[in-house]
Here is the input.
Amino acid sequence: MLQWLIDPFQYAFMQNSLIAAVLVGTTCALLGVYVVLRRMAFIGDAMAHTTLPGLVVAFFNQWDLFWGALVAALLTALGIGWLTRQDEIREDTAIGILFTGMFALGILLMSTARSFRDLTHILFGNILGVTPTDLVRMAAVCVLVLLCVVLFHKELELTSYDPTHAQVIGLRAEWIRYGLLVLLALTVVTGIQAVGVVLTSALLITPAATASLLTTRLPRMMLIAAFLAVGAGIVGLYASYYANLSSGATVVLTCTVMFGVVWVLKRRKN
Amino acid sequence: MPFLYRPHRHREPVIGAPALALEQVCVLHPRDKQIALDQVSFEIAPAQRVALVGANGAGKSTLLKTIVGLMRIESGKVSIYGNPIGLCYHRVAYLPQRGEIDWRFPVSLERLVLAGRYVHLGWFGTPNAEDRAICQTVIAQLGLKALTQRQISQLSGGQQQRALLARAIVQGADLLLLDEPFNAVDSETREIIWNVLDQLQQQGKTVVVATHDTAQLAQQFDRVLEMSDGKVLTLRQM
Here is the structure.
């Protein structure tokens, strides 16, 4: 049994994948808790999809895909913040407009390519193919998110449940919101490497939603969400190695099963 | 990142200045640009308890939000202890209507009340033992001691209202603006709130209460501001 567990990680690419699963899982789960609690669940999916034109442009020009995705995600984050700054357009509407527009642009650009096949790893990710450079970026984003969540805990918390009080005491709630959107953009871009455009939002939302069923304390919720996301990442790696299944799909399905089990157990308990 | 908070200038009150003074204040609704406050002028002396009455939509909440800087002033001037809005955030505490808060968020009652101390902490600051002691005292004063660690969604409407009042009190402000603190609360909560308001007045705090409850105006308030269609119609001494 021990040998079965250790075997896959004799290879360097599997070791890199394991580190990637821990880093991406932790980052997505920490921020995902705020995404779920602030009822922004749609944004993870939207932001992942809006990276498509950036990814395609970078792919065509043989640039680093990370930067193409990051530029597109940051533009989306700032665009959402800008469109909703005056309360004239609701946040979900702004997300809907930018998400569909950017994704359509991405599809349009993809349709000019000779082959879609090369772009499939963009859509579905490949955690087994992460490079040391990818790991450095994932680690940097993870540390940044962790620092922000710890240092600005009270500001993030207060602006989430009572933005009015935040404004009354002179806290610039809109800057916190922009900051959160930028962190989300960075997180989504690293998530794309692991599970792809289509499934990144699941890493943000499902572990956090599962944790929210298990506790009513915010720090504990973050810890549980991180634990679940990392666990799902590791299960995905084993599935890839032993059953030759898509790692991204297995990771996300593991998250979904965890949510289902917790939801059923909680309902039975109640 | 000091830009996260607007600059806190702890400016001292101007000697002899009223606690609150509005001069010809006009405010527009942000969405439709209709007039929300129309040439509003009045003064309130320190240590007074003032009722703000009027029908729904009269402009009571807009007036309170304007005083705490949540609404953009088109023309006119607001002074708090002789200083403009925003020069001293800790001097004004605001109790919003209950519906403005996401009660499902995972914070405890204690944590919600502690947020009243944040104005003194700034960025990176975390509540210390003194902040916690202040909160515990006020929580006990409002009869919420047994509920300190309870998640805020698990509190009754009256308990939530008391928790918000506790948050406003721990701020240590000189001017407290309370928007409908008696709305949908039981008689026990009502009595506790009145006792606390009495204590605040004895401490020299100025309190403005927006209320629909006109039964006790004469007994409980020094003055009454009556509003209609964004205008202050009368300012009665009780």
User: Anything to note?
Assistant: DSSP finds seven helices and ten strands in chain B.
